[in-house]
Structures are given as structure tokens and as C-alpha cells.
Design a protein that fits this description.
This protein has 540 residues and is α+β, with helices and mostly antiparallel strands. The protein has a domain of 180 residues: Gyrase A, domain 2 (2-Layer Sandwich). Helices cover 51% and strands 10% of the residues. The protein is built from 21 helices and eight strands. The protein has a four-stranded antiparallel β-sheet with strand order 1-2-4-3, with helices on both faces. The longest helix has 32 residues. The protein is globular, with a radius of gyration of 26 Å.
Amino acid sequence: MPYSDFERSLLRHYFSVVDGPEHADVYLVRNLPEEVAATLNGVYSRSSKSMRDQFLERLRQGLEAQGKKLESLPLPGAVVDTLSAVMADKSGQFLKTYAIDHGHNSLREGSVVHLAIEKVSQLVTRFIQRERRCSFEESSTRYIAFTAESHWRDPDVMAAGGDVAADYEAVLRDTFALYTRATEVLLQHLQRVRPLQAGEKEAPWLRTLKAEAFDAARYLLTPAIQTKWGMVVDARTLADVVTELRSHPLAEFRLVGERMQQEAEKALPTLLKHAKPNPFAQSLQQALPQLCEELGAAVVPVHRGPSEGHTQLLCWDRELDDRLLASLLYEHSQQPFAALQNGVRSLPDGERQRVMGNLMAARGPHDAWPLALEGAAPFEFETVLDFGAYRDIGRHRKGFQQQQQLTTVHGFAVPPLLHEAGLAADYIAVMEQTAERQQRIAKRFPHAAAYVTPFGFLQRVRIVFDPRQVAYFIELRSGPEGHFSYRKVALDMLAQVRRVSPLFAQWIRAKEGTAFLGRLDSEMTADERRQRRMQAAGDA
């Protein structure tokens, strides 16, 4: 629906672009109170609307609650503050001299922008969101249904035409057709096996069932599907991200990098000037695949059909329990760390357990693990899991994660709910046909083939977390409201930690056991919590 002249004038003040392009709609969020900007960023996960539309809707609702109309608002002033303009010009000169010419990179970290990135593929989204130094909020595949029109078609594949373009289109067509049918069939199945109970509210019950259906159906989505997200980032980090994108072999990545730079420069006219394609990064994109070929590391046996993921512990601190106890004591002692570790090591096992129990006894259900538990060597895991689950695990950026290129050679996961609803045979047939098509595309376009690798296909990932982050990850992702696939990864990690560090593992509060409609309890109380927060805000 087109904007009115009034809405257009209002939006121009708060967003750098009002009418965005069909793809890679990137715009600066500006002049908003920080809490309002954070709210708009947060609603991405459960709404299909753009940030501009969310802004107008929430503003209109707030005014109508006060008996007013949107059009009654005075438009924001457009008077240029002369003093601010002069200060901005002087700041630009200073930053060019010291941040750009002299390379004082820390100066760039003091300038932060809020960008909205919409109508971009899941593939470029996952690439950008590897960055650990900024904050993201993204549309959820659990709460939002997608449309067939929202797929990115790689221009190089489309320009090649012939069989390769036909395979690309066929994957998008067949996987999305089954995705659309599966969401309906799975929801109907869940309504039959778990009908609304007496005393339950229909809205949260239906939300839970839809989320469970989407969790299984999304295995048919491809990384070509478009999404949207918000990004809060400092200038130094943004310059690095833009450079990576503009150095990438895929056209969409370069386009998104250019758009991000173009919009961010409206707020940071100086600090992003040096963000350009990097010859070294471009050379590695060519040299590393060639080296893999030479070493025989590029080819693995192709697994056809369904497969199961697994998690392996590669490396850990052999003295973890002793080092963690010594690390907890360190800030409250004057002894060297080695002496503290020796003292802890000399304690009988029962005594160490008693000491750790006393220290952890007061930890509440929402208390973070002590910072000192980062004071040991990290755990290093290698996991083979479906890409759908990795999208969630990849958000744990406090650590190191390394994902291999998306492929179909490791086989694919079959969500249990598809078996229960009688859809497994159709799903397996589509995924096997997709694997053949994807592998044909990959022979000519190895990077672009990732766009047509559905979320259900298994990928190999390296995860390096310090002990504190391992505990946090297991506690969070083992929850019954979580996705069944990353729950398995979290519980597999716990089993590995228990094997090598039983004292530490004893205090990790995992949620073990099976889970069916695990979100139901939280959704049932969500509306009441929301009402209480709104009432409190209104009272304030």
C-alpha cells in the first residue's frame, strides 16, 4: 500500500530511504530515541512488515489510544543546525587525519549506526551475521510464513541459462511448493493430536502449534529465501563487513555491501571511505579452493538420502576442573595462579565438589555463570548438523565458529514431525531430487549453488567456546521450547563435557528428556506477561 504525502514526509525524517528497491533494501534508522529504535529492531523476529511500516503502525496505534490521528502530529523540523553542521565538518577533518590517514582504528568505534537490511537472502544474512562485534535482530522462520516471490536468483546463474538455470528454478519451485503444503498439513496434524484443552486460551495454543509446524516445514526453505533484519554496528566493524562483502565472488554480496556503505555514509561520511574491495581477500577466494584440490581435500563421498548429525569433542582443557576453581579464587587471592591450581589439585574429589557446590548454591535461575569460568582453555567441537539448526547456533557469537561451504553431499535430516504427519516420503523425494540438481549447479557455480541447498541438508561446523559459553549454550539451547535439532547438539555437547569434566558438568542446568510442544507453557503465559508490562509502562 503506498504511503500518503504526510507519511512520506514523516518517514524521511527517521529513515534514509522511503521507497526501497525490490532487492537489498538497506536504510539508515535515525533521529529516534534509542529505546524506540531498539523496539523496532526487536519486532523483526515476529512480523513480516518492514521497519518503516512497523514504525507507522505503532505510532498510529499509540495516537489512536489517546484519541488522536497520525496526521495531527507536527512534522519534525527540517531547520539545519548551523553549529552542528560546523562541528560535523570539523569532526570529519579530525577523523580523516587520525582515523583514516594515521590508522587510529579505535576512533571508529565511537560512531555507531542502526541499519535496517531488508529483502536480502538467507545466504548473505548468515555471512554478515558471523560478525561478533555488533548486534542483530532478524525475522524468524518459526513465526513468519514466506512467499514464493521472495527468492533471490543469482544473476550469474540466470545469465548462463540452459540446464543450470532450469535446475536452479526447479529447486526453488519444488521445495517451496512442498513447504507451503507441509505448513498446512503439519498444523492440521498437530491440531488433531493436541487439541485445545479446557481452560486454555486459543491464541497462544495456535501460536505454539504454528511454531512447531514451521520448525519442521522450514527444512524445505532454501538460503535463497529473502529475510530482513536490523543491525547496530560501530564504524570500524561496519567498514570490515563492507570490505568483506565487496570482495566476495557472489553478486548479491557485493550489492548488499555497496548499499550498506552508501546508506551508512549518510551518517558516517568520513569513516567508511576506505571500505573497498580487498585484493588479498579476493586472492584467498581463488587460492584456497585450488589448494584444497591439490591436497585432495575438496572431495568427500556423497551420502544420498536421509542422514543423522553428530557432535564430536576435538579438544578440551585436561585440567579443566582444577583451573576453573583456581580461576574463581584468583581475584580474591595474592598467590600465583600455579600455586592456586596446585592447592585445588591436592584437594580430595569430595572436597572439590563441596567447595564448588558452596560457590554455586546461590545461583538463581537467571543468573549468569561467573566471569572467572572463562579462565580455562576452550572446548572445541565439530558437529554435523542441518543448516536450519546452525542458523540459530550461529547467533552465539561469543566464541569462534567455522562453517564449511553449504553442500548436499552429507545427506539431509528428516524432522520427526514429517514422519508423524505422513509427509516423510514426499519430503525425501523432493530432497533427493534437489541434491542432484544442486550438485549439477555446484560444478559450474560452487558459490551460487549454496542458494539452492535447503535448510535440511547437513553441514560440518567447528565450534570453539570457553567453558562459560559452553554452559550458557547448553542451558539455553536444551530448553524444551527450542528446536529439536539444536536441542540435540546441546545435549550431545553436555554428554561430551560430562565425560571429560564431571565436576564442571554437574552444575550445568540442562533440560534433558523429550519435548513435545515445548513452547506451550511459555506461550500460555506470554500474553499475561505482556499485559503486565504494558500496564506498568502505562502507570509510569
